[in-house]
Amino acid sequence: xxxxxxxxxxxxxxxxxxxxxxxxxxxxxxxxxxxxxxxxxxxxxxxxxxxxxxxxxxxxxxxxxxxxxxxxxxxxxxxxxx
Length: 82
Description:
Layout: H1 3-17, E1 22-23, E2 36-38, H2 43-55, E3 60-61, E4 80-81
Parallel strand pairs: 2-4, 3-4
Antiparallel strand pairs: 1-2
């Protein structure tokens, strides 16, 4: 994914959940580091982020506090962590 595309996607995600809820801090999940972490504040925002990801064919990995991720099915790559 190009830097321009990443910036555009990040801007669109920030429009959904707000700038404060989009992070680029590396958060490793069993060796996979998503390009962005999104923290929706409501079920409506979760739905909007998932619709956005589907539209742009992004791989999303759910993360619940980043604990015990190695137990579940960790994707080989991830664009967004939710």
